[in-house]
Amino acid sequence: MPEELKPTASPSAQSVPLAPRSLNTPSPSNPLALPSSDSASKLPQRTPLLATLELHILNLGVLAYVHAGRCNEATMRVSRLHTVLDSGVLEREGIRDGVVEVPIHPSSSNHVPLLIHTTHPRVVFHLAFLVSAVAMRDATGRKPKPKVFALEGLKICDKERPKDGQKPVGRCKRYVLSQGNVANYEVLTDLSWVGLRVRQDVEERLTKIEADLLCELVSVCIQRSEFDDAEEHLNRLIAHTRTHSLFDAYAARITLYHAHLSHALCQRSRAFACYRLAAALASAEEQQEQTSTSLISTTTNDQVHSGIAVARFVRVAAQAGELGLRIGIAREKGAEVDKDTRRWGDEVVKECRMLGGTLEAVGRVLEACLTDEIVAAKYVLSLPFDSRGVMLII
């Protein structure tokens, strides 16, 4: 991996374990403590099942800690994730086909192995770039890591996209992250060795990952005031989602990015319209997902619940952006925020706190802007919160 792609933890994060301290500290009551990164590298080679579980746990752990605002712990797991991927675990026999065997001690010589269909290695490899771009929230510097990870992920997506008359790309001889050069990403075969359903599922997931990478790239460019690049990537995102029939799923997010871009460019009327449209689209999507939940027989449909969470997050983010724009316009005129805006702002702040993560930090900033007492505003802003990358322009 090139130097600009390697995530570096802050000095205070060097001692942060890969698991909570209560689970990572060896003790007589906890003999199965998780090994540290140094000792883990000296352990024997893990089985395909354990290696697959480790990759999934690291991906989920990064996202969970980023949402909680604990960026140091997320950075440590990103570093560990790339260490595992650089070891060539995705090309090992028993993993590269997306089917993992669970080792079971047979009671007789004639036993049937237990095989589990897990996430395909191509999806895991592309997902590593997306997770890394999300985890690296510092958008400053000459080569910001969120932008670098997103661009490299998009380069690999372009490299794997089949040209006219070619078959879809299958697996690679080696998933190389250590070199970081897309030209060294060697493609070998097509997807003729898997079923049609598996191939369609893999291609659909990769298409969504590419759309999410474009979303991250638009967000970083707006934060860095690179407005021309942001508009270019936003147009590419719209074209990509329309080409693959994903525009309805990303319409609210795309509208929110337009609102942020217009807000940053001081286009107030367009920003107001985009904020309200994004909130309306997300609210309609949220109601539709809730209706789907009531119609299905079981309430444990993860895809439906995740759709509700995404729609709610976008709706509250759009409302927070509109509230910030209202406060900014009022302060610029030297006037006080009207009572209706304060009443609506209290509801928005409450929802921001309920959702947590980055929106919790946004809610604290808005709450401090709405209060008239300096002491209360200082108290709200002084509360500890380690969430970086709050994109709110007031």
Percent in helix: 55-70%
Specify Rg, calculated over alpha carbons. Answer: 23 Å
Count helical runs.
14
Strand content: under 5%
**Category by helix and strand content:** mainly alpha
Largest sheet: 2 strands, antiparallel
Taking strands numbered 1, 2, ... along the chain, how are they ordered across the largest sheet? 1-2
Order of helices and strands: HHHHEEHHHHHHHHHH
Note the gap between the termini.
38 Å
Q: What is the count of β-strands?
A: 2
Low-confidence stretches: 7-35, 39-44, 169-193, 386-394
How many separate domains make up the residues?
2
User: What would you call the shape?
Assistant: elongated
What are the key terms here?
mainly alpha; two-stranded antiparallel ribbon; elongated; disordered C terminus
Helix-strand layout with pairing:
Blueprint: H1 21-24, H2 37-40, H3 48-67, H4 71-86, E1 99-102, E2 114-117, H5 121-135, H6 145-160, H7 196-223, H8 227-243, H9 247-264, H10 268-295, H11 302-332, H12 339-355, H13 358-370, H14 374-382
Antiparallel strand pairs: 1-2
Description:
This protein is an all-alpha fold. It folds into two domains: 219 residues; 103 residues. The protein is built from 14 helices and two strands, in the order ααααββαααααααααα. A two-stranded antiparallel sheet has the order 1-2. α7 runs antiparallel to α8 and α9 runs parallel beside α11. The protein is elongated.
In short:
With 394 residues, this protein is mainly alpha-helical. It has helices at 21-24, 37-40, 48-67, 71-86, 121-135, 145-160, 196-223, 227-243, 247-264, 268-295, 302-332, 339-355, 358-370, 374-382; strands at residues 99-102, 114-117. The two termini are 38 Å apart.
